[in-house]
Write a structure and sequence with these properties.
Distance between the termini: 48 Å
Oligomer: single chain
Largest sheet: 8 strands, mixed
Length: 416
């Protein structure tokens, strides 16, 4: 079933009786060519590109809960490719290009909105660092624009430019950045994969691996044993737990990251803004709510809930950036479990166990990477060779000393 304006009009005239389920609810088969563990954005994108780009359709996506119930439905929806280092920039720019054609690709409205991302700077040193990053982006073929105070003031007059502690001096802008409807991404990829023959199996929790002479031959689940030639793990904050079933210890810690939505307001924020003197980022949804977040909670956890000190810290950042936010009522908040790597960059790699592959360590940046992560992971699974833009995202890079240290201090300086 393809969606179109004509289809919507026809259904409206006939009582909406012709709509079909977006994806099937199949029973798991005894064996597949590939099993993808994790039905989040990355897992669904992997299955979609395995089927679409590489013709591998005998695939099962196993999700312990429901589609859209994990991090893919618990984030602040930001997309961008404003990275500095060559290990990251081509990868995230590939993701941005895939975002730009995503809705046409899988015929589903993911509400991709390229309203721009602005990283504010508050000192001469920070401006110089942004000049370096912007030049690196331009040299890599990524759009970048440095705005001075007067240029930024015309676009965002509501900011507290003369804050006594954090005066705003300008911003590094990426106009192609923006936001996407998070759960629509999950639904779109699920629908696209299902239409190509992939089995999406919800409420199917993996609790072990089937090993035979050091080779991974399948998984054990609460719905029985399922065999496969290749097993691809893609479970975000649960990475350490799932990979421990195979006897592997990862260079990853799991932390909760909280996000917040205010009551609906009239349009006020033109795109995505990030606070350069603290960790605070904000955009405005199509419903009018301010969507914002900040730092991870400081303790290790697998729980999708946060604590009050971080709520206070995030709100302090928002108030310092734009005091008017203090007048808005908080509508809801939630937590997602982040798999934090020790250099702030992810992994897409084969493991030391034949037949077992791993995708994780996305820290704060998992959502924006969804299309490229799925594409590169599918390439690795299908060809047993890393994609050219993911060659640096290896599990052994700490042993080799080849870190991709985007800030020079890891994604979270006080935790690494």
């Amino acid at each position: 079933m393809r969606y179109s304006a004509l289809k919507v009009f026809k259904e409206a005239m006939t009582g909406h009786k012709g709509w079909e389920p977006v994806w099937r609810e199949p029973e798991p088969k005894a064996e597949y060519d590939v099993i993808v563990i994790g039905g989040g954005g990355h897992g669904l994108a992997t299955a979609y590109y395995l089927a679409k780009e590489f013709g591998i359709t005998n695939v099962a996506v196993l999700e312990k809960g429901w589609i859209g119930g994990g991090n893919v439905g618990r984030n602040t929806t930001i997309i961008r490719s404003n990275y500095l280092l060559p290990g990251n920039t081509p990868f995230y720019e590939l993701s941005m290009k895939l975002w730009e054609n995503l809705e046409q690709d899988f015929n589903y409205n993911a509400m991709v909105s390229q309203r721009g991302v602005m990283n504010l700077y508050h000192s001469d040193a920070q401006r110089d660092a942004y000049v370096r990053r912007g030049n690196a982006m331009i040299m890599a073929g990524v759009d970048a624009e440095l705005l001075n105070r007067e240029q930024l003031q015309k676009e965002c007059p509501f900011l507290d430019f003369d804050n006594a502690r954090f005066p705003i001096m300008g911003a590094l802008a990426q106009r192609r950045g923006g936001s996407v409807r998070h759960d629509a991404v999950a639904w779109g990829y699920a629908r696209g994969a299902d239409s190509r023959g992939v089995d999406i199996i919800q409420n199917c929790e993996v609790n072990g691996f089937v090993m035979d002479k050091g080779v991974c031959k399948g998984v054990t689940t609460n719905r029985g044993t399922i065999k496969a030639k290749k097993i691809a793990v893609c479970v975000a904050g649960s990475s350490g737990k799932v990979m421990s079933y195979a006897g592997m210890r990862l260079p990853i810690e799991s932390h909760v990251l909280q996000a917040f939505v205010s009551e609906g307001l009239k349009p006020v924020i033109p795109g995505v803004l990030t606070f350069g003197a603290g960790h605070f980022y904000v955009s405005q949804s199509d419903k009018g709510g301010l969507v914002f977040g900040g730092d991870i909670d400081g303790y290790n956890t697998y729980a999708q809930r946060g604590n009050l000190p971080v709520v206070e810290d995030v709100c302090e950042g928002g108030m310092a950036l734009m005091p008017m936010i203090g007048r808005a009522r908080l509508l809801r908040m939630w937590g997602g479990v982040m798999d934090m790597s020790m250099d702030g960059s992810p992994f897409i790699d084969k493991t030391g166990i034949d037949g077992l592959y791993f995708n994780g360590g996305w820290c704060y940046g998992g959502f924006k990477a969804t299309p490229a992560s799925g594409f590169c992971y599918a390439h690795l699974i299908a060809k047993d060779q890393p994609h050219e833009f993911a060659q640096e995202l290896r599990l052994d890079r700490f042993m080799r000393g080849h870190l991709i240290d985007e800030k020079g201090v890891g994604a979270q300086p006080n935790l690494h």
